[in-house]
Structures are given as C-alpha cells and as structure tokens.
Amino acid sequence: MDRRAFLQHAACAATAAALPRWAWSNPPTLQSNPFALGIASGDPTADGVVLWTRLMLTQPAQMQAAHTVRWEVAHDARFAQIVHKGEAPALPQLGHSVHVELRGLQPARWYHYRFMLGDAVSTVGRTRTAPAAGDLPGALRIAFASCQRWEHGHYAAWRHLVADQPDLVLFLGDYIYEYATPKNTSDLARTHSLRLATTLADYRDRYALHKSDTALQAAHAACPWSVTWDDHEVQNDYAASAGHAGRGDAASFLTQRGAAWQAFYENMPLRAASLNRPFPDTQWDALQVYRRLRWGRLAHIHLLDTRQYRHWQACRAPESTSAGAVRGTSCAELAAPSRSLLGSAQEQWLDTGLAADAAASNAEQDTTRWSVIAQQTLFSPRHYPSGTVTTDNWDGYPAARARLLQAVAQRKPRNTVLLGGDIHQNYVCRVHADPDRPDSPVIASEFCGTSISSRSGTTQDKVDAVVRHNPHVLLARCDLRGYGLAHITPTQWTTTLRVLDDPMHPDSGASTLARFVVQDGRAGLVPA
C-alpha cells in the first residue's frame, strides 16, 4: 500500500476508534441481511484489487453505529485455502461502505472473496489480478457497458454478460439516474417511489435501489469492475461546477454535486487514492476518477472523466435543463480553441500516457499492443443533414477532439481503440486523423456501446440518415439494449455487440447484433 492510501486508511480506522463505545455494534444482532446490496471488486493490479461492500442496516441504533466487517480471500469458493483475511471499518459517515485494498496477491490469478458481519456472511465473489507488467498474456475479455435507468428496462443484460465470463467490466457512466418515476407509467418496465435526487440521503437511496437488482449483483460478483461516471450520477447534462441553476448561481449545485460524488465513492470499488484528502478531512469538491489500468503488455486502459473538468456546453442557456443541439453556423463558441471536454490537466495526462505506450512499442520486450481510451460518449463526429450539432458530446468540443486526434497521430501507439457509451445506441466507427476528411488516414477504431436499459429516444430512420452522411460510421443501431464484449489477443481485437430480445422482461434472451475485428498494426476495422 502506498503512503497516501496507508494514511487514508489509517485516518479512517482512527475515526472509527475515536467514536464512543456506544456507537459500535460488534458483533450486532441482525434482523436482516446486511449484505443485501451485494459485493464487488475493482481496479485490479498485478498484485492486488479493491474489495467493496456496503452494509444495509435496518435498526436505528445499528444505522448510527460503526461496525467491523471481516473479510476473507481464498483460492477456492469453499474457502478451504484462505490466502488473506482481515477486518475493515464500516462507518456511518461513509454510508457503511467498505473499501479493502488488497496487496500481495499473485499476478494473473483468480480469487474468491467474501465479507462477514456477526453471523451474517455475504455471497461469494470472484475476482482476479492483472498479469505482471512484463508479461504478454494470450487473451483478455473486457465487457463494456453504460446507462441503466431503472424504469426503462430490466437488467437482463447483466445475466448474459456473466455467462460471457469477462475478465474485467468497464462501466462507462450513468450507473444511476437521478430522476423520480414519471407520472405516466404505462410504458415503463418497473417503477420506484424515490424523489428526484438532490441530497446525500437521496443518492444513497438511489444506489441502494439499483444495487438491489440481483442480475447487477451477480455481474459485480463475477469479476472485477473499473468504473467511471457521466452526468446522471449527479444531474442531467451538468458541466463541471455548473448545473441547471446556471453558471451564475453555483452554490446550491456544488452542495448537491458534492453529495452525489460522495455517494459515488461510497458505492463503487474505488481506491482511497481517489479522495482529494484523507478521510475524515475529505472535501467532496473533487474525486480522482481518471486513471490507468495495465494488463501486462497486452493492453493499457486509459479511463477518462469527461464531466468534472469540461467547459459549459456551447451556446447553452444558463437556465436550461439539458444541453440539446445548436446550428453550427450560428454558434461561434463551438469553434473556440480553448474549449475542453477533459480539461487541460487530463488532456496532458492522456498525451503522456499515449506517448509512453508508443515508446514501449519501440522495444519489443515492453510492447503495449493495445492502447484503450475508455470514456463516456461517442467520439467520432455525426454530421447531420440539417447542420445541427449535439453539444454535450465530442461534437460540442471539436478543438478538444482535434487535440486528442493529434496526440494519437503524433504519439503513434501501436493500436488505439476508443470505447464509449452515453447515447443509448451502438456505433462502430473508423477514426480518421481529420474527422472532416474521409480520405485522411485511419488512426484508430471506435466502439460506442448501447445502454443496459435506458431508451434511445430516436428512430432507426433518423440514425440511418446520419450514417448516409458519415462514411466513417460502419454500423449504427438504436433502441437495442445490451453491452459490448471485446476479446483481445496480441494479434487481434474482436468486439461482439450483444443485444436483448426484450428489455421489458427480466428473463429476456440475447443475441449478437454484429461482430467486428481489428488486426494488430492495422488501424481501422472490418466486420467479422
């Protein structure tokens, strides 16, 4: 454990120890399952992983108390070969969440883990470590997904994802939706009674709602996840420090955003290093969400944050509740060279990472085969016949997109693949050095996945019209829910787009919409 993580965990433990004796319940007498929200693991390294759970307690005295949770890690699901065990505090100040940062595990190995509180034992989770830094594994299976609005559909996609047995899940944003159930419920798969989320209690309740789904719990328990956020973890189409109240009245929104960000940390398998200060002195005005994950020499994943540092959407009225679209010819702000989706610090961080990938590619023993840019939305442009521009994705930040393209073109990683979500549609694109010139070199490939359950809001006819005006788009389909599955080897990347038969049913079947292949050393992609 590095020094910062050690200090943060020490501070957390010290806070728990400083609570009065009456505030502890160890072991408690429980009237319900404290692990009803499931378990999870995340951000694997070659020697460790994060283990997570969050206690659900029903008795008032227990809800106000700190608890000591026991955990075990074993080679087998029956825990006959335990390799690590310990205790961790579950504090009411952090929603009784538990984050255990393991070190000392063997690289490229699967493990089983569980938590215990009193006589209660959690379900058994399965996790794994990444390969050692210098190793070139034969394969990696990544599932990527996003957007799981509760009312719009059941989470059947997670059942099928578990059956596909990925090594890692990349969740690319909109884990929760902040909305209350619409008044008209006739076309919804299910409803809930929670109000529009604005407070810490609201966001905690919203995560508890989503995590109560057994299919989602099974997906978390099946393998490690690496998670980033988009807008609905806080508020639709917010931008950095500005929400619906507009840029001139940020105080109330910043309070809401801080509550939402705290709930995100509490409910995700994140490392303590994501906090800007050691708990209990954490200020919820920033979270370090962008980070890298290395899978030996096979893949280097750059996981981005496109919400915390972005400029306000171009030509958007301060009081508007969504970013919408504008006509490009009537919005000079769109072309401003200073506008950024990532912020200057993250842009430089990504450029440095791509340069390191490319440098490694020049030394065969350290080659990074696949540079993966995992972010929230569609990267490639959508040129509409009407001339309109959607301002909440990369189309609204053309100068920022040009800088990233320039970084890829100049740094020349061996293979670059972009993953995205957000738009509730499947897109497969060739990424050109100049997005406005289809004759410019292809320098990367893109897969933008559809939603787990959220509706698209458009029609296939409109999507087809976009494809006709955008030759770099190889596939675009709307109103199909599901996920993407990438099978990565040293010589080939294969993405399979999996879609549900009927997201309105929890036992829906699934099928393969399409499969595309990228060959090592050849930018671009072809149908399989």
Key words describing this protein structure:
528 residues, alpha+beta, seven-stranded mixed β-sheet, 9 helices, globular
Provide a descriptive summary of the structure in words.
By secondary structure, the chain is of the alpha+beta class. It contains 9 helices and 24 strands. The strands form 5 sheets. It has a 7-stranded mixed sheet with strand order 11-10-9-21-22-23-24, with helices on one face. Strands 12-13-15-17-19-18-20 form a 7-stranded mixed sheet. Strand 3 and strand 4 form a beta hairpin. Helix 3 runs parallel beside helix 5, helix 4 packs parallel to helix 6 and helix 7 packs parallel to helix 8. The protein is globular, with a radius of gyration of 22 Å. The two termini are 43 Å apart. The relative contact order is 0.12.
